């Protein structure tokens, strides 16, 4: 089968590799696979892996061969939960399989889904109803992680929020907040095109990073927002999130970089008595919620798909990811159903 491999920092190739050894697992024929910032960091060497490694953790496909005891009929379209867990440690038993210390991420710790076939235990497969178009399905894994993050935050209609960074995850957080009844949402990004898209998706105000402080003050009558969602992962954006927050606010740190406390406005953190939430992955139930939100049309996913490439052109797909105007870049592994 074909697979996209990273052979070392900066070196990716598409080549034939043996089909996965399924043993009792279900074999998924991969249909769409999203390229993520994590993949880009693995390719650049910023996230080291054991080489060669098949990339890819944002995977949808259909059941090609049902595993032993599988209840999923052949042909069922599925979302793959890419985070495996041991199932028996104290963390897994505490119902937090997404934090399992012995867990692994597809495409980083084990071979992933930028390939024709992927063998997975049924526990990691979430059926997708036919009402979800293929283009939307390609973004379900990312939506699952955003659902997981927001499940940890209380919001109420009438509250105010800022979303800092309007890439795919920021635009999904914006839509989820709208769906949860938060109408006063300010979107912050350098990109004019992304500000326009955020307005279409329901932001009441948008701003460049330079103007954000003033816009937040204006929209909230000087109070600051009840919830600041940071979706970039840089010290300056975390700082901006903390400084946009009102007294007693919550800061949802979704960008995965964890800056050291140096240079952070830690006095404001203390003075404003901020609750800072820093989610890591997604629980199985978050993926089912993501699928339901998409099937009902509550969240629009395909609006965030900005480029598509055949699996064979994976190098071009990765090159496209360097364009900051890009939103979700998707690999098409099989032709349309
Ligand atoms: Zn991802
Ligand atoms: Zn475990």
Please characterize this protein's 3D structure.
The strands form 4 sheets. Strands 3, 5, 6, 9, 10, 17 and 18 form a 7-stranded mixed sheet that branches. A 6-stranded parallel sheet has the order 13-12-11-14-15-16, sandwiched between helices. α4 (140-150) packs across α5 and α4 packs across α10 (284-295). It has 337 residues and is α/β, with parallel strands linked by helices. The protein has 2 domains: 2-144 and 282-332, Medium-chain alcohol dehydrogenases, catalytic domain (Quinone Oxidoreductase, Chain A, domain 1); 153-277, Rossmann fold, CATH 3.40.50. The protein has helices at 37-44, 90-93, 134-137, 140-150, 168-179, 192-200, 209-219, 235-244, 266-271, 284-295, 314-321; strands at residues 2-8, 11-16, 26-35, 53-54, 58-65, 77-80, 83-84, 104-105, 117-120, 125-127, 160-164, 184-188, 205-207, 225-230, 245-253, 275-277, 305-310, 328-332. Residues 85-86, 89, 91-92, 100, 102 line the site of one zinc ion.
Notable traits:
337 residues; alpha/beta; Quinone Oxidoreductase, Chain A, domain 1; Rossmann fold; 2 domains; 7-stranded mixed beta sheet; 6-stranded parallel beta sheet; 27% strand; binds zinc ion
């Amino acid at each position: 089968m074909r697979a996209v491999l990273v052979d070392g920092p900066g070196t990716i190739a598409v080549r034939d590799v043996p089909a996965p050894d399924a043993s009792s697992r279900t074999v998924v024929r991969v249909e769409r696979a999203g390229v993520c910032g994590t993949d880009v960091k693995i390719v650049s060497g910023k996230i080291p892996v054991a080489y060669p490694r098949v990339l890819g953790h944002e995977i949808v496909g259909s059941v090609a061969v049902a595993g032993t005891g599988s209840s999923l009929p052949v042909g069922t379209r599925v979302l793959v939960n890419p985070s495996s867990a041991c199932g028996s440690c104290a963390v897994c038993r505490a119902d937090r399989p997404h934090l399992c210390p012995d867990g692994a991420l597809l495409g980083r710790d084990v071979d992933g889904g930028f390939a024709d076939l992927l063998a997975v235990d049924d526990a990691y497969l979430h059926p997708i109803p036919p009402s979800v178009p293929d283009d939307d399905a390609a973004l379900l894994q990312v939506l699952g992680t955003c659902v997981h993050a927001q499940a940890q935050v209380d919001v109420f209609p009438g509250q105010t929020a800022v979303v800092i960074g309007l890439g795919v995850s920021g635009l999904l957080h914006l839509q989820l907040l709208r769906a949860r009844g938060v109408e006063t949402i300010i979107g912050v990004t350098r990109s004019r095109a992304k500000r326009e898209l955020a307005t279409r998706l329901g932001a009441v105000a948008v701003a460049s990073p330079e103007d954000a402080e003033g816009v937040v003050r204006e929209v909230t009558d000087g109070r600051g927002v009840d919830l600041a969602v940071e979706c970039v992962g840089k010290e300056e954006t975390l700082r901006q999130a903390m400084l946009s927050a009102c007294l007693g606010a919550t800061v949802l740190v979704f960008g995965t970089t964890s800056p050291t406390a140096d240079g952070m406005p830690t006095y404001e953190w203390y003075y404003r008595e901020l609750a800072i939430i820093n989610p890591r992955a997604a629980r199985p139930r978050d993926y089912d919620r993501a699928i339901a939100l998409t099937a009902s049309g509550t969240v629009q996913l395909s609006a965030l798909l900005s480029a598509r490439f055949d699996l064979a052109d994976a190098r071009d797909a990765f090159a496209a990811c360097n364009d900051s105007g890009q939103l979700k870049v998707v690999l098409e592994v099989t032709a349309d159903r």
